[in-house]
Here is the input.
Amino acid sequence: MRPGERGEAVAPPRPHHAVHYINRIGWLRAAVLGANDGIVSTASLLTGIAASGASRDAVLLSGIAALVAGAMSMAAGEYVSVSAQSDTERADLAKERRAIAQQPEEEWAELRDIYVERGLSPDLAAQVADQLMADDPLGAHARDELGILEATAARPVQAALTSAATFAAGAIAPVLAAAFSPASRAIPIVAITSLLCLALLGYVGARLGGVKPLRSVARVVFWGVLAMAVTAGVGGLFGAAI
Here is the structure.
């Protein structure tokens, strides 16, 4: 007897749709990469220039140049690399479109075999392949054969704009720290400010990605410390040699 048939109170049905994060992967990857690179590269450059004994104006000018050049470089790099991925996806889809038009039976059998390998019985796999080939054959092959999903498809413009904006947002923190700190304390102030920003970035990125933040925070802070320490060491070494 099912619940409620004897008069018992029946709890209202709970929503069964879970919250997923895969649809964020395109812009989230570009955003985290841009912001992390903006903080780490700019802070490292500033600490390296400051450690060399350069003047406060030279340090600040270097930071501003790094912000502008880095943002443009991130935009160009993301656009070129993601465009290459997008070109490959379009080429594969065009190839599948021709195959479906020229060899529909072979493409149907290919889908059926994919579903059999995933655990469906041959009869059920054939029925699924029949329905999908009748409804959206290209979409079915893109998803199940090529692994191209709408949520993760390459978007070059989105990646370029996101990376450039987040690089500039990340880089502005160490630049402002250098601008408002005394020359004698520029290195520790820039380093502490940047590490706090990196920790915040790691936390926000982890939360947006649906994972626990501790590992993400530790990862970005570790690499930030390493980058700034190495660059400051090199700056001090060459500054002493000049």
